[in-house]
Design brief:
There is one protein chain. This protein is α/β, with parallel strands linked by helices and about 260 residues long. The chain has one domain. It is built from six helices and nine strands; from the N terminus they run H-H-H-H-H-E-E-E-E-E-H-E-E-E-E. It has a four-stranded mixed sheet. It has a three-stranded mixed sheet with strand order 4-9-8, with no helix packed on it. Strands 1-2 form a two-stranded parallel sheet. Strand 8 and strand 9 form a beta hairpin. Helix 2 crosses helix 3. The longest helix has 16 residues. It is globular. The protein starts with 11 loop residues before the first helix and ends with a strand.
């Protein structure tokens, strides 16, 4: 994949289209076939649906449902680059939050049904380092873990990324998921990434990255508050325990 300053892409569909082109999917037929293969549904009806959906997604007419967002992140290997995975998840969250008729989550879209379980790539998406973001991507991506038919939702609401605390996380190398959120002072605005990263530990099994603005539940504040999502991107197999914002977290990373 060519090196980019991914922040140059200001919309999710533009980033999606660029990644498709760089992966060799100049048209939607080959990518639709791959999407069907990854989902475990190789019927003609699923293929026809995928072709139609991909055209709408790449043109920005519609935003994919979370399940298909995770599948795309896996196919396009979004988790291979941490910066890409984070931006992929952020743009998806922003696109879902737009209250417009033409950019409606899942509008005119059919969801692929599994004939077998499929493990997402970066869930971050959320693909998120990796899902889908998420990802994540997991929340792919962010690709980040449960099976694809029970994904960690990288975008829990129209307010942005779901940045709630997760005590125990299991995922594969190359995947990523939101594991916590840094809230602002006095229950106010979410901190910048520059501020949030000052309090992050260095890990042996992966890295902690910017998951974008979102919300998290805060007992102290009495409900959901703005937060900076913290995305864990799995890099090395192993089990690791650490503390983040006063909360204990255990991650289990497998090959």
């Amino acid at each position: 994949m060519a090196k980019h300053d991914w922040t140059e892409f200001e919309t999710w569909h533009a980033l999606l289209d660029q990644l498709c082109v760089e992966a060799g999917y100049l048209d939607n037929m080959a990518l639709a076939d791959k999407l069907c293969e990854t989902s475990g549904n190789r019927t003609q009806a699923a293929y026809d649906t995928a072709v139609r959906n991909l055209q709408n997604w790449r043109q920005g007419n519609h935003i994919p449902q979370r399940r298909n967002f995770l599948l795309l992140g896996k196919i396009l290997n979004v988790g291979a680059e941490e910066d890409l995975a984070g931006h992929w998840n952020r743009l998806y969250a922003q696109a879902r939050s737009k209250p417009t008729a033409t950019v409606a989550s899942g509008a005119g879209e059919d969801t692929f049904k599994d004939t077998k379980p499929v493990i997402p790539g970066p869930r971050w998406p959320l693909f998120i380092g990796g899902s889908l973001i998420a990802a994540t991507l997991g929340a792919g991506f962010v690709v980040l873990t449960s099976k694809i038919n029970e994904p960690t939702d990288p975008v829990g609401s129209f307010e942005g990324v779901d940045a709630d605390y997760r005590r125990d996380v299991t995922m594969k190398v190359g995947e990523g998921t939101i594991i916590h959120g840094a809230r602002g002072k006095e229950c106010g605005e979410a901190p910048s990434w520059e501020m949030a990263r000052k309090h992050l530990p260095e890990l042996a099994t992966g890295t902690l990255n910017d998951g974008g603005p979102g919300t998290r539940y805060s007992r102290q504040c009495g409900g959901r508050v703005p937060a900076r999502a913290i995305l864990f991107s799995a890099k090395e197999a192993g089990t690791e325990q650490f503390t983040l914002y006063g909360d204990d977290i255990v991650v289990h990373v497998t090959e």
